[in-house]
Amino acid sequence: MHEGVGVVGVGYEGFRPAITDISTRELMFEAASKAYADAGVDPRKEVGSFICCTEDLWEGWSITDEMVPDQVGGARRPVCTIPGDGIVGIGHAVMHIRAGVAEVVAVEAHSKVADVLDKRAVENLALDPAFHRVAGADADVLAGLEMSAFMEASGFGRDDISRAVAFEKRSAMRNSRASYGGIFGTKEVSGADAVADPLRRFDKSEFAEGGVVIVLASDAWIRRHHAEAVSVDGVAWRSSTPWQDGGEVSFSRYARDCFASVKKQSGGEGFGSFDVAEIDDTYSYKLLQHLLSIGVGNEETREYSTGKRGNLNPSGGSLGCGNLIEANGLHKVLECVLQLRGKAGGNQVKRARSALSVSWRGHPTGSGAAIALSEGGNGR
Amino acid sequence: MSSKIKEYRGTEIGLDEVKAGKYLFTNYDTVLRYSWTSGVAISRFLSGLKEGQLWARKCNNCGRTLIPPRMYCEECYRPTDEWVRVKDTGTVNTFSISYVNNDASRRKKPILVSVIDIDGASPGMGILHLLGGVEPKKVRVGMKVKAVWKKKSEREGAITDIDHFEPA
Ligand SMILES: [Zn+2]
User: Fold this and answer.
1) Contact flag B31-A118 (C-beta cutoff 8 Å)
2) Is A201 helix (H, G, I), strand (E, B) or coil?
């Protein structure tokens, strides 16, 4: 039996289209300070490992990992960085705890993406230089291509997707962390300006800035400190072949495999057994594709994505809160933890005892991660 | 190649063949543009430079005075407490006589790059800058220096508002 791990603290700052008053490092300090206060830990003494999820090209400095320790409390302490989504960082935190490297681990991810003046230039650099970059395609063009194939293969039509967008945007109106909420009709979403048809304006989550820090601890630590915790019941990350390199275009194998793994780890059943879920929707159709890929049926997907069944993306998702790049996963975890604590404000769902998050690293990747959480209270 | 390896297996590609288009050769230029948010600490530091002043932040817990300023003390992990104006004089902590430009091309006349511990800040707190008005051979670690500011009309709120440091 593996040692259990729980979330003992969360902190965040920002969640706006652009944060103009504080720097990236100050943003990280604010989010981390709140997370340590929430967990009741002194990072200089009690946090044994710090994990930051950052990517140099989004930061605008090379070797960013060397610049992260001070502001998260990790000066001269074990710090590592992962160029990847925050849930992958949590996966590493769980390994650190189970391997005995640390009893308490902090995972940090942020977006300061408004500092990047030409985001397309960064996206273009992620494409294969010989075969894809020359075509002038950016992430939105890839999304348009994938969306076309998805709609054809799944039978989901323009209005099905628009109804999901309208539902998410409406949910976001009750979330103080959401910058892109709104009350839209299906027609308005379907008829919005084309970005890369069939991808239209509201199908794409706009960029946002924010920082999130999650503090995790071993069950033994949680018991010793009588801490309140949300249990991490399973965590997984996978990279499948991106469709433009020969992978499947209408199906997310990474999502299927991540979900299968967390389901096995948590001893859970299907998607329906989770009381609340935050599933990647950085593009509208990806939300539906992710649901279908983890085994949710067509009709159920229609119902979940329009609020007629279950509690899908009560936060408003990325469509409502914004695309936080490497912090998208930790944002979902934050929303799930608040739900399980009963502290999600206007978006609180009733009787939330278990939660699922699935994240995706965006085009052109086929990389995703998933985490299953439940109301813990191990130390209570 | 070594004493054991006389030749590598495979086909050597010559520059002529590349120029003749015999192989796929892709050249890609990109322009990455950023506009970093300077934040609370560095904004105050930069506007101070425009006024010909150096500003630091003090942590009242450990008593250190930090320059360039930070809104948090990384040792105590708490917000720093107050702004402190420090002198524009200091001591050469280390220096290098550099004969290369940013693009790695050679310089005939070297530039003198130095880390200067600023008077009034805690030991080891300093800024990276250039030395001037001194022969390279005469520069010493521990040498007292002072800032040579650009004319007020030329200052723009940048570290280059100090033109260089010269012997005090
Ligand atoms: Zn201090």
Assistant:
1) yes
2) helix
Domain boundaries in chain B? 39-167
What is the pTM assigned to this prediction? 0.94
B95 close to B130: Cβ distance less than 8 angstroms: no
Range of the domain at A101: 5-117+207-228
Percentage of chain A with pLDDT > 70?
A: 98
Q: Counting beta carbons within 10 angstroms of the beta carbon of residue A227, is it exposed (0 to 12), middle (13 to 18) or buried (19 or more)?
A: buried
In angstroms, rounded to a whole number, what is the distance separating the alpha carbons of residues A142 and A15?
Answer: 26
How many folded domains does chain A comprise?
Answer: 1
Max CA pair span of chain B: 68
pLDDT digits (tens, 9 = 90+) for B93-112: 999 999 998 888 999 999 99
Residue A236: CA count within 13 A, CB half-sphere: 21
Put simply, whether B40 touches A (Cβ < 8 Å) is yes
Q: Does A135 touch chain B (CB under 8 A)?
A: no
CA B162–ligand 1 middle distance (angstroms): 28
Q: What is the CA(A226)–ligand 1 centre distance, in A?
A: 30
B77 → closest Cβ in A24, A73, A115: A73
Residue B100's beta-bridge partner residues? B106
Paired strand residues for A323: A207
Would residue A224 count as lying in a domain?
yes
Which stretches of chain B are assigned E, i.e. beta strand? 54-58, 65-66, 72-73, 78-79, 82-86, 89-100, 106-118, 126-131, 144-149, 162-167
Among A266, A291, A283, A268, smallest CA distance to A358 is for A291
Q: What is the CATH number of the domain that holds A43?
A: 3.40.47.10
3-class state of residue A113 by DSSP: helix
Mean pLDDT by 10 residues, chain A (380 residues): 89 97 97 98 98 95 91 97 96 97 98 95 88 78 95 96 98 97 97 96 98 98 96 96 86 96 92 97 98 97 97 98 98 98 95 96 95 73
Smallest CA–CA distance from A69 into chain B, residue: B74
A190's tokens:
């379907």
Residue A174 lies in a domain: no
Sheet holding A209-218, edge to edge: A79-82, A49-53, A104-111, A209-218, A5-16, A230-239, A367-375, A354-360, A276-279
* A138 within a domain of the structure (yes/no): no
A165 contacts A202 by C-beta, under 8 angstroms: yes
Taking the Cβ of residue B31 and every Cβ of chain A, the question of whether any pair is shorter than 8 Å is answered with yes
In a domain, A82, yes or no: yes
Q: What is the DSSP letter of A283?
A: B
Under DSSP, the state recorded for A225 is: T
